[in-house]
Predict the structure.
Amino acid sequence: MIDQMTQSLARIRFVLVETTHTGNIGAVARALKTMGLSRMELVAPRQPPDAEALARASGADDLLERAGIHPSLTEALTGCRLVIGASARRRSIEWPLLEPPECARRLLAEAAEGEVALVLGRESSGLTNEELARCHFLVHIPTDAEFSSLNIAAAAQVLAYEIRRCARESGGERLTDSPRNLASAEEMEGLFGHLAETLRHLGFSDPEQSRSLMRRLRRLFNRARPDRVELNILRGILSAAQGRKRPGRFARSGETPETAANPASEL
């Protein structure tokens, strides 16, 4: 399944049209590589990738090196079975409009069969109507109407993330926490018994006379679900509070047991 996802991602090309700033080219390369995408095509950029592009790529130099430079959008789209254009503004002409998640689903579905492209326009004006006419769909990132300007690299990152999220979801890939060695029920009962004993020893409360206190404490620690290491730490603290550990046993040179046990006393 991972190989299939990799193959599909490799068939998705991001096409940048007449990019003005080379730094944006590098930033897009970085955005793509972080999401496992590797294809970038440039249409008549103001300047080819330079030192600034390399600096902004931050390790995605290989994408810059492989990026094709084309005189026209037609050449950059050669062989593509699906083309989706990205635009920050709505068009007066009715055009099939997608949000980023649906855009990602369509690109991946078609990439299983062949080459596809996502086209990003100029930083200042986006895609022309003539360029849009070469696209099957238009994708729009729903930004705040009061400030809708989105840098081309930021837009590429949003769209690249949606593509990867959709690919992981279709492949059944999920983020999972490392397995925890949770404390058992009997170990938790040992903690609660130790806690009740310590509360009596400290004169904080008599659990026999305040059953609701122990119920609340049980609920607190059961909600936290400590692992065995955490439970041992808690019981060590309780033992120290009961005086079962020598005060100041970690005192540094020149410290007294009292100041080691209570650093605030030196203030």
Remarks:
- Residues 2-170 form a domain with the Alpha/beta knot fold (CATH 3.40.1280.10).
- The first strand starts at residue 12 and ends at 17.
- The chain has a mean pLDDT of 87.
